[in-house]
Amino acid sequence: MPPTTAKPKTSTTKPTSKPTPKTTPTTKATPKPTPTTTPKAAATPKPTSTKSTTTAPKTPATGPAVSGCGNPNPGKVLLTFDDGGPKAAAILAILDRYRIKARWFPTGQWANANGGMIQRLIADGQMLGNHTYSHPQMLSSLGRAELTRQVDLGYHPTTVFRFPYGASDSTSRAIVTGKGYSICGWSIDTLDWRGNSADAITRIVTSQAGPGSVVLMHMSFQADLDALPRIIENLRSRGLI
Asked: Taking a C-beta distance cutoff of 8 angstroms, is the pair 106, 83 a contact?
């Protein structure tokens, strides 16, 4: 019953007395949809977050500056092993078997956590380099303070530096060289990071190797470990290692 009496009161008693109030609500009713549409438009910023999802590519850029690698035999192939990983000891055992000195680029984080392995590499006469503390892309967007921190907390003492992913710009290069480092890139990428097999890795290195080549491998892939003896034997037979 209250609903029915309320309805007549609005429709019959005060149609004329309060026309304006009724028109005002009606006009106020129209603005209400508009605010609702505006938030919908404001939801479009979500594409921006998609852009930020464009994380730095994990594929290494080519590192052409091989002259800064400190190769003790410039006419020979230099093998290099990056980052850190569970295959380090097994790689070292193969290098020892063939009496080969390589250049290792552990991150500062890995070096700190694997001091015993680092000491073994040093005692063995292997060569080490700085590969930053935590392996970011060393671009000016990181900010000078963070770029400097990454270099300072990377493995040392050494005078050779390798940029993670081969990624650098004028700012990061100036910081690295300003601290007395030479920059070591690579001329042969085994693409082990892409999941290449031992056969594919062997084929890439043996087909591209020449005097002074620098080979990029890592301490974490079984395929590198399996390919290593075949690579060394092929290069040795050609006088390249």
From this structure: yes
